[in-house]
Design brief:
Largest sheet: 9 strands, mixed
Shape: elongated
Number of domains: 3
Mean pLDDT: 79
Distance between the termini: 20 Å
Radius of gyration: 35 Å
Strand content: 5-15%
Length: about 675
């Protein structure tokens, strides 16, 4: 009985069967691709933990959580897509199913027939789609690895495409469950219908109320209104496709807008801002307890490190090398030393962490402070470049950001202390300063906006060095001229040779990292390019879901569309006019989610621009229009091809045969 019913239907309805098989293939491909990428992300995270010698596995990161959410949404969209495809196919056979029920077929048998048919149609497409998804993931991962090698990333573990048989089984099982669940929903509904309801089932449900499309009518005429009403009458079958296209456009556009603003902001606030302050940055770390206190002679490695600084400055092509350390602490400031504007505003107003205290019967404020500790030569050069002199070896950068009357984009500053020499207390030890400046040294550091910023020489810091444990020293190096790629690599090799020799000869228990500004810029650009590719893939996956839904609705409802357009022909509408209607339908299907995504993207982009140091003109000049237009063009082209194929099939039909009532055939 099953062979006489299902096999014959499959053979005689090849288009509908191919539609279901294609939907199953696409669903399994997308699920396999997503599972494979998720497994490679997890494997890469595990390798990073092992490379860092972490004892226990860390919890899932934000990327994995986001990826799990995307996977869940895609599964839900695929179920809706497949459900629509199966519902259209099964609904077109209501008359035959009603006849079977009238001769004694039970609802369970009807469901069994339909599900067996789905398995026959989908088992090979699901297997092929799962294998294709693995292949696409392998190509994608290897492309990302190749990009990483081009960036010359310093990766401390082996990077390769990873796969496991369990991933294949999970992908395959999820795909089959998705297909069966999507088919079971309409099969269960059909199995519950009575024989008479099934026999006299009307494929074209009556539309009780339809929207008026005045704007569409004004813009595109009567054919635009007819196209809009046709889509409205089929809105349930198009809902999943439209939502998938909308999410594809919206996610991709929001990412590109945000990434462009982020890239320009990074360029302004980091690369361009510090371009003249560093070319190489060496960070030397010591084991706990080895303080940076070279001038006081308390560090057993003092002579070695002084030698390394001298050797770095002596390298050919090296313009300057500043050795510095940072100390984040608190200081006590007598209230009378505060500037008048700060006292009027109240330290607790502008400095949220300020705390009032009593010291030797005087009112004082405990404030956050940041010390920039320069080697003696660099400190002297700093003072000379600012036309100041300091006998104490301590300079106060007398600036406090007035965040009440200015934004961080356009900061206004108040004087922090009165501009005369004074003494601060650090853990009851006095620290005297006798000079003022309005900028910190030319190093790759930011001015601490809500703290006292003090620039000190090593000699001055040695007087209070026993209070602190500073385990990291930075070497800010600038070259005499801009170096090319090969010259930059040669300079980096020379620096590493100097550091390796000094660490090996005396700086025991030390480690170091060396940063190259040119490499950082190249790596940042390459990383952003890679992220665009990843987001493009995710947007493409969602677009594929939407396009598949459109294909399902377009080809699956071919019978209803034939009758619809036959009626148009019967009242004198020309074939060219019908083709125009189909073109407008395709335009609305792609245009509506595209415009809605733009409507949401524009205000979000404006908000991001207001929070970033980027102008609208600069943003528009750097916005990657090509990927955005490419996604739109490819989606529109595929939808147009589907509609062109449907239009050709519809317009070739015999109007008399189509308009015949075939309810009892």
């Amino acid at each position: 009985m099953w062979k006489a019913f299902s096999v014959r239907y499959i053979r005689e309805n090849r288009v509908a069967s191919a539609l279901l098989a294609g939907a199953a293939f696409l669903s399994s491909l997308l699920l396999s691709l997503l599972y494979s990428i998720a497994y490679n992300l997890w494997a890469d995270d595990l390798k990073q933990q092992q490379a860092a010698a972490e004892a226990a596995a860390s919890p899932p990161g934000a990327l994995m959580i986001l990826y799990a959410m995307v996977l869940f949404l895609v599964c839900a969209a695929l179920i809706a897509l497949l459900h629509n495809a199966f519902a259209v196919s099964m609904g077109s056979r209501m008359h035959q199913l009603g006849i079977l029920k009238s001769v004694g077929a039970t609802p369970g048998q009807i469901r069994s027939f339909l599900l067996q048919e789905v398995l026959v149609l989908c088992v090979f497409p699901v297997l092929a789609g799962t294998g294709t998804g693995v292949g696409l993931c392998a190509v994608f991962v290897r492309r990302i690895i190749a990009m990483g090698r081009e960036m010359e990333l310093n990766i401390q573990y082996d990077v390769a495409f990873e796969y496991h048989i369990l991933v294949f089984l999970i992908s395959l099982g999820t795909a089959f469950l998705t297909v069966l669940f999507s088919a079971w929903i309409p099969a269960r509904k059909l199995g519950r219908m009575s024989p008479m309801e099934a026999i006299f089932y009307e494929e074209e449900p009556e539309i009780k109320k339809i929207r008026a499309f005045r704007l569409t009518s004004k813009c595109f005429g009567v054919y635009g209104e007819l196209a809009g009403k046709s889509l409205f009458s089929r809105r349930k079958s198009m809902r999943t496709a439209g939502a998938a296209l909308f999410l594809s456009f919206l996610g991709f556009f929001l990412y590109l807008s945000g990434e462009t603003i982020s890239g320009l902001s990074t360029q302004h606030t980091y690369f361009s801002r510090f371009r003249d302050t560093w070319d190489y940055m060496l960070n030397v770390n010591r084991s706990s307890g080895e303080d940076v206190n070279r001038s006081s002679g308390e560090d057993e490695n003092a002579g070695t490190e002084d030698t390394m600084l001298t050797e770095l400055r002596a390298l050919p092509g090296m313009e300057s090398c500043i050795a510095y350390g940072l100390v984040d602490t608190t200081v006590s400031v007598p209230e009378q030393m505060l500037s008048d504007p700060l006292r009027e505003a109240g330290p607790e107003t502008l400095l949220g962490d300020a705390r009032q205290e009593e010291i030797s019967g005087q009112t004082a404020w405990q404030l956050k402070a940041l010390f920039y500790i320069l080697d003696d030569r660099s400190f002297q050069e700093y003072c000379e470049s600012r036309d100041i002199s300091s006998d104490t070896g301590t300079v106060l950068v007398n600036l406090l950001w007035d965040d009440r009357n200015s934004s961080y984009m356009d900061r206004a500053y108040l004087p922090f202390l009165r501009e005369k020499a004074g003494t601060l207390l650090i853990k009851e030890i006095p620290l005297r300063y006798d000079a003022f400046a309005d900028t910190i040294p030319d190093i790759r550091e930011e001015l601490e906006q809500k703290a006292l910023n003090l620039v000190m020489s090593e000699t001055a810091f040695s007087r209070i060095g026993s209070l602190f444990s500073v385990n990291e020293t930075h070497y800010d190096m600038r070259t005499e001229k801009s170096l090319s790629g090969e010259e930059s690599d040669a300079m980096e090799a020379s620096i590493e040779n100097v550091v390796s020799e000094n660490i090996g000869s005396g700086m025991t228990g030390s480690s170091y990292t060396l940063e190259n500004r040119l490499e950082d810029e190249r790596a940042d650009a390459s990383a952003r390019k890679g992220l665009r590719i990843v987001m493009g893939v995710l947007a493409g996956i969602l677009a594929c879901v939407g396009i598949a839904g459109i294909l399902s609705s377009t080809l699956g409802q071919m019978y209803q569309r034939k009758k619809e357009f036959a009626r148009y022909l019967s009242v004198g509408v020309s074939l060219d006019a019908m083709k125009k209607m189909l073109f407008l339908e395709a335009l609305f299907i792609v245009g509506r989610p595209f415009l809605l995504a733009l409507i949401i993207d524009i205000p979000v982009t404006v908000l991001l621009l207001n929070a970033a140091p980027v102008t609208a003109g600069e943003f528009l000049g750097h916005l990657p229009w090509v990927p955005m237009l490419l996604l739109l063009a490819v989606t529109a082209a595929i939808v147009a091809v589907f509609y062109a194929a449907a239009a050709g099939k519809i317009c070739r039909q015999n109007i008399v045969e189509i308009l015949k009532d075939d309810a009892l055939v």
